[in-house]
Specification:
Structural class: alpha/beta
Largest sheet: 6 strands, mixed
Helix content: 25-40%
CATH architecture: Alpha-Beta Complex
CATH class: Alpha Beta
CATH superfamily: DHBP synthase
Number of helices: 8
Distance between the termini: 44 Å
Strand order of the largest sheet: 7-4-6-5-9-10
Number of domains: 1
């Protein structure tokens, strides 16, 4: 931990990264690096979700069991289609609630590493309602791990810096930190809903409730969502 360098990147007046900072972050991610990003439900520990070396780092730093899958932040429906198989119901839910505090689990495609999903065959995807995090994912062009910034099984500390200090960084030299506390709008973690089984079910209820999901599935039609595929 003593050798970890934490570099906080400043945001512009529009709560985005300037071009040079954005290039720095994407280059870092391409080289198996890690970044702390805000979402509307808290901070995440981000790495290239398609890079097994980077994903393994995330498991180790969080002391997370390899049997516990990690979800991914995506930029939108185009990236979703590259990573998972969406059925009619899951597509409607994504259309309605992305971006927002919802994680949707669907059968994964071959491009997604088994390590990321703990060999379950299913991947949770999320589009956070946070401009700077979406900016990073869009510029990077690949999904980023969406696991919360904390040790596995523990709550986050009072500040993001305190939480980072508690984690197991063994040998990791550098992490970029992007802070925007004003964007954290929800005390609850994102709602997690799985469409990998029939019928679909909620694994964790957060800001988006079961009735909200039912309403979206029953009222939207395929015509409403076809331009998102």
């Amino acid at each position: 931990m003593a050798n970890l360098q934490i570099i906080e990147l400043e945001l512009t007046e529009n709560n985005l990264l300037n071009f040079n900072a954005l290039l720095t972050v994407t280059h870092h991610l391409l080289n198996h690096g890690l970044v702390v990003l805000p979402t509307e439900t808290g901070y995440l520990l981000g790495a290239n979700a398609l890079d097994t070396e980077a994903v393994e780092k995330v498991y180790n730093i969080k002391e997370r069991p390899l049997s516990n899958p990690i979800h991914a932040v995506i930029s939108g429906m185009g990236m979703a289609e590259e990573l998972v198989f969406l059925d009619s119901d899951s597509r409607k839910v994504c259309y309605k609630f992305f971006p927002g505090p919802l994680t949707v689990i669907c059968p994964k495609k071959l491009i997604v590493p088994d390590l990321l999903v703990a060999n379950t065959g299913n991947l949770g995807i999320r589009v956070p309602d946070c401009p700077v995090t979406l900016q990073v994912v869009q510029a990077f062009g690949k999904p980023i791990t969406a696991t919360s910034l904390n040790l596995s099984g523990e709550l986050s500390e009072t500040t993001v810096e305190d939480t980072i200090m508690r984690m197991s960084w063994q040998g990791e030299p550098l992490i970029y930190l992007i802070k925007e506390n004003n964007l954290i709008k929800h005390e609850l973690s994102s709602t997690v809903v799985t469409f990998s089984t029939k019928p679909w079910s909620i694994l964790r209820e957060g800001p988006i409730k079961k009735n909200d999901l039912k309403l979206a599935i029953s009222t939207l039609c395929s015509f409403d969502v076809q331009d998102w595929t």
